[in-house]
């Protein structure tokens, strides 16, 4: 068994000698008897009124009494009864005991009380409750009472007011309410010297390693134990201090440090102490963590001061296992590696940040599906990330502290001493604990801090003659949220919660930051997300007014959509009329346009075409897909890293691609840009679906694999996208995020909820932390569509049912794929597909046929091989959905057929049905029906 002999002080001599200056070197004289518990009032008719006294065991109470006083007149309280005490006090705990006397009719008005009088007639105590009085008569005449500082009015039957704590006299305890226990030692009360005599310092003690044990919880829970060790940290903000045995027990599976909750007197760092307390676990309400500690009013004896502290244990990341830190709980540790400040969501509330070790090639930890594919790769990376992070705390449980500790240099956080996500910290030293769901380091000094991610004053240089941006404005509501159910006045039906600012001051601060961000972006078109969606409320127009009021502003306008969809928030569009003009009206993608787009989960998409002064057209689609935060019916988290509702988002992405292919605004131009919060990282299914539909991820194209614009759970990635169609991609000059939000602690945002006045004063009227998402900016050199871009061809064979040739034999050219692509692309038309007599071929188009001025499609026959080919003919029909068909006319085998879509606005399918009549014998033997080379179609460009 370990002894305190491991300290530099030779404690072996303490068993028989007392060191000078040691706490509790001489026992005090036993204190007088004192009042220990009372009950004077309960709900209903008063019952079980009583008074308990306590004192050293064996004290004879013969001749002692309790004189009861009525203090209706504060300056002249009169006695109304005397209760005699008798017998002697038993030894119930530590040489002390209790006795009580029933006191029916004990007064319960203001300023009532009693005097405890010893056998010689001396008043030992004069106590009162609910006020102070001066006794007018009896043994306490002329004396003023002491109010116990706690009252009992209408308390439950079976309760009392009682002393708790550790000590040997009334001054050592505190009055509290609790369950009555007259004639017993009170719950939470211990009769012991709070400063044990020094000759106990060398006595046998329980090793801290034994208290900790080799599992997550102590095997000694509920047992009173004594430990001896050196104080390594005193944390008033945590309500206690840390101990560590410098020598340890030699078992690497057990921790040699321990937290002591409470304890009196409070020792100093470097004190060698003996502590007696109750072993147990501090378990947070979620049950996610459990810290072994001593509590139960621990007693603390200082044996020697100025002891050297144990050397900290160096912790290296990634950890070998999730529980690798358990054997270090309560011990001094150091973090010698350079770690990245990767999460700061709880910094304002609890003063904590998460430090992470980036993986090879990374500048910071990344969300798995931002850099690897969903499934096993993402699951494996998530596990590696979890082993490469730790919480750095501030040594306090105070919420929204007035002074925030800088996670690097340890000085107060402020405008001249701030930090950003991505900055680094090296050489953290502190004590390891496990609370509130995580292992965390309580720092005991500063570390080396490096500001490697400075604020960008201007957005990225993306070039281009036209700039398109998107910004999630984090619930910009003009209707303030009063936080009550009655205040559910927002949304299309005015029955939803208003999600934005809680008061006018917050709204003004929020607006200031958003305007600073939008003004700094200086974009010609801006997609906005999370705008209030209430009838008659137009946040987009409000932002336009604010932007246009800025000095030197180039005026903006907004697309006036009114309410969109059924949610409390919607998307919106701003544009600069001097740079672009809307072409036609806006369009909305919702469930009525495509049932696969679930608009009760995804917000409806806003689509608008713009034209530049040079004549270039492009269509912007602003999308905000379902978040990962809550499950969708039948679409839960699959555990592959993509979170909740992945199928819902993927179906919406596919529907969006289909919808844009129909050119819903009638732009006549295939240049399209999807922007907004798709709530999907770039390796996830929704983004893959859009890439497969021909869209290019412009953020990845410019910023590479490790681009980011959002931080969640200490991991970076981007949810806000800029996806360009194939024809537009060549016109994009660059794209990127302006890192003004994701890297900033949210203590700097507009919100005042929970913030202390000192935190509130950190607000600055600038663009930083205007939202939690970084804005996206895209540069475009928009041009008129080229002739090649105006035309298209079939991309897919939807169906092929060949007829027969001659007298019933199969046709000899039966590969329908040769009809795909532009006509003449396969051997100059000499390679064609034969329909056969009565045969039919259906082709599908990724880019839909457009009904534009002039001919819309040309059906080109194969090169005639024999005379009979000149007599072949077929009917041509088109369909938007593959179900309802519109006949366009007949095409013949000797010449191309040109057609106009007529009453059809767009079509995705084209069907050719052979209608060749039978020729006379022997020519019928040669017939093989209509031969098709290909179909050239107009797919854009007016």
Structure description:
The chain has 942 residues and is mainly β. It has five domains: 34-191, no CATH class; 208-309, Beta Barrel (OB fold (Dihydrolipoamide Acetyltransferase, E2P)), CATH 2.40.50; 326-450, OB fold (Dihydrolipoamide Acetyltransferase, E2P) (Beta Barrel), CATH 2.40.50; 466-746 and 776-780, Endonuclease/exonuclease/phosphatase (Deoxyribonuclease I, Chain A); 790-937, Galactose-binding domain-like (Jelly Rolls, Sandwich), CATH 2.60.120. It has twelve helices and 49 strands. The strands form ten sheets. Strands 1, 2, 5, 9, 10 and 11 form a six-stranded mixed sheet that branches. Strands 26-27-25-24-37-36 form a six-stranded mixed sheet. It has a six-stranded mixed sheet with strand order 28-29-30-31-35-32. The chain is elongated and about 145 Å long. The termini are far apart. Mean pLDDT is 90; it is low at 1-30.
Tell me the number of structural domains: 5
So what's the CATH class of the largest domain?
Answer: Alpha Beta
Derived from helix and strand composition plus strand pairing, the structural class reads mainly beta
What is the radius of gyration? Answer: 41 Å
Number of strands: 49
CATH topological fold name of the largest domain: Deoxyribonuclease I, Chain A
Described by strand count, sense and barrel closure, the largest sheet is: 6 strands, mixed
GO molecular function: endonuclease activity; exonuclease activity
Protein name: Endonuclease/exonuclease/phosphatase
Domain Endonuclease/exonuclease/phosphatase: 502-773
Keywords: Endonuclease, Exonuclease, Hydrolase, Nuclease, Signal
